[in-house]
């Protein structure tokens, strides 16, 4: 089996979507023109180019014919991608289907192929950077909304994503913006939070990871932005998706207009954040303050 066939379904679908849109944009044809040529509805064309559906081999070949794509090798590659995009249930472990959201399952597939990730968090650290102790505490905050089995699966997934990010110091570029409240809001005991902050400071020194904190004085606007991640699959600006988190919900967004919108928000926040070295000093200072607190001030 080739590396292309092994590509995660969500990523393969993104590759097919991107290629088909680029082929159409090299012609004078609109989505409506192509739909009429093939006897399809406009909504079908829109769903294919938005990667909302996995295109069949028959539809793929029909589109490539309309676009005048005749390169046999390219057609074979895209056919493999289209087949990989339809293997979703086969490659997803049953416990992930049962206990992870659809958005998180997609995010994990994109993360496995990412060349860079830009993320913002305004409440707690991203799951992939949480220490085991903090991850356990955060997952227990959900209370009875999730079962013990779901909690176990989600914990295992956080540790898996942590290893993927941290085990390769020369891996994908990871840029993270944190609201200052993330490093000041205590999760668990004094010792647990101090250990988390110390671990975060060490992570921030890795060559492929950059972390910045948005200080409180930058105003309330930052606090109104929900957590999000921009996952790039290559250096091309249009080869990215956005993962957005809400209370009790999440989703992956493929629309490139929205991707650009969130990239602009990220870049604006990045410029107004503390530089990396100042951020590390702030994180270490918070950890040192926790270590210096007398025992009677510990929080359980």
Notes on the structure:
With 300 residues, the protein is an alpha/beta fold. It folds into two domains: 9-90, 434 Repressor (Amino-terminal Domain) (Orthogonal Bundle), CATH 1.10.260; 97-297, Endonuclease, Chain A (2-Layer Sandwich), CATH 3.30.870. Helix content is 54%, strand content 12%. The protein has helices spanning 9-25, 31-38, 42-49, 57-66, 72-85, 88-91, 94-99, 102-113, 132-140, 148-166, 180-184, 190-204, 256-272, 276-292, and strands at residues 116-121, 173-179, 209-214, 228-232, 240-246, 249-253. A six-stranded mixed sheet has the order 3-2-1-4-5-6, with helices on both faces. A hairpin with a 7-residue loop joins strand 4 (228-232) and strand 5. The longest helix has 19 residues, at 148-166. The protein is elongated, with a radius of gyration of 22 Å. The model is unreliable at 1-5 (pLDDT under 50).
CATH level 3 topology of the largest domain:
Endonuclease, Chain A
Main beta-sheet annotation: 6 strands, mixed
Q: Could you give the order of the helices and strands?
A: HHHHHHHHEHHEHHEEEEHH
Global geometry: elongated
Produce a short descriptive summary.
This protein is an alpha/beta fold and 300 residues long. The chain is built from 14 helices and 6 strands. The termini are far apart.
């Amino acid at each position: 089996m080739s590396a292309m066939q092994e590509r995660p379904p969500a990523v393969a679908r993104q590759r097919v979507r991107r290629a088909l849109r680029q082929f159409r944009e090299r012609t004078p044809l609109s989505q409506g023109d192509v739909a009429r040529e093939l006897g399809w509805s406009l909504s079908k064309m829109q769903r294919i180019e938005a990667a909302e559906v996995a295109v069949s081999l028959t539809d793929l070949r029909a589109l490539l014919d309309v676009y005048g794509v005749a390169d046999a090798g390219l057609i074979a590659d895209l056919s493999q991608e289209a087949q990989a995009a339809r293997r979703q249930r086969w490659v997803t472990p049953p416990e992930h289907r049962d206990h992870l959201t659809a958005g998180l399952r997609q995010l994990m597939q994109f993360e496995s192929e990412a060349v860079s990730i830009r993320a913002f968090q305004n409440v707690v650290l991203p799951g992939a950077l949480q220490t085991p102790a903090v991850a356990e505490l955060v997952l227990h905050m959900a209370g009875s909304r999730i079962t013990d089995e779901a909690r176990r699966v989600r914990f295992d997934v956080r540790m898996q994503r942590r290893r993927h990010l941290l085990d390769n110091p020369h891996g994908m570029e990871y840029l993270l913006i944190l609201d200052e409240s993330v490093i000041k809001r205590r999760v668990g005991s004094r010792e647990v939070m101090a250990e988390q902050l110390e671990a975060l400071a060490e992570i921030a020194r890795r060559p492929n990871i950059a972390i910045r904190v948005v200080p409180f004085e930058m105003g309330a606007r930052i606090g109104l932005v929900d957590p999000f991640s921009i996952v790039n699959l290559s250096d091309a600006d249009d080869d990215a998706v956005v993962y957005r988190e809400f209370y009790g919900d999440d989703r992956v967004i493929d629309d490139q207009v929205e991707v650009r919108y969130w990239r602009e928000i990220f870049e604006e926040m990045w410029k107004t954040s503390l530089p990396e070295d100042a951020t590390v000093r702030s994180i270490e200072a918070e950890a040192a303050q926790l270590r210096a607190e007398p025992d009677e001030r510990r929080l359980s």
